[in-house]
Task: structure prediction
Amino acid sequence: MVDARALSQTRRGASASALGTAGRLWRYKWIQRGVVWGIIVVAWQTFGLIRGPFYFPTFTDTILGFVRLVVEGDLIVMAASLQQLLVGFALAVVIGIPVGLILGGSRSGEAVLGHYINAWYVTSKEALLPLMIILLGVGFEYRVGIVFAFSALYVIVNVATGMRDVSPSLIETARSFGASRRQVIVKIALPSVVPFMFAGIRLGYGFAIKGMVIAELWVLGGTGGLLADLALQRELDRYFAIALIIALVGVAGSSIIRTLERHITPWGAGAMRTTERRAV
Result:
């Protein structure tokens, strides 16, 4: 009886120890992400086997499709699309930040620009595609313009929101101590705006990728045109490989922006998440 009781206690202790070890390991984010990715891959592979390659490729078929993209030179097409994405998005950031500062920090700026920004917001960006084709053709300028149109609004609106969010009492306190307008802007307004700015940049980056693909789908060129051709030919292994690459480009870019935000404004990480929820 004593041995049985001791054995039972030993087993319970071992189980508790194993659970404790598992709990400590689960705290590591890379383990959590690995488990989630493992579940996704297994579900993907299973669903692909059930549906068949004509409707849905397996994960292994998608990896082989990526190899075909490399061998057949399709990644060169995607590299050209990435260049257009980066140029259009860079213009959205460079132009969007000062416009947002003017819109949010000046009543006259709000009076002059506010109606146009609101009109831009409510207008379907897809409706601009035929007009952009007429004005810019179907080449580099058109695709850069569409990326800009899809992404700049989110930078502008978030920066303007950050300017309006600056505490008036804090500004009045600084002025009461003799701070000049330049000092108020540099020392108070801009540090408050930076987290909002990064939130807008992250949101704009996601919509920039969307704009890149939609612009190319319309003219059947670049990555979008390649996706359209592969869909018509039912080469879904390469189709899903391209879709996965686009998703990874989005995740990588967002991670880079988040890392920059943490290094430049370590106090603003929480503010950025809040701003994303309040974004347009």
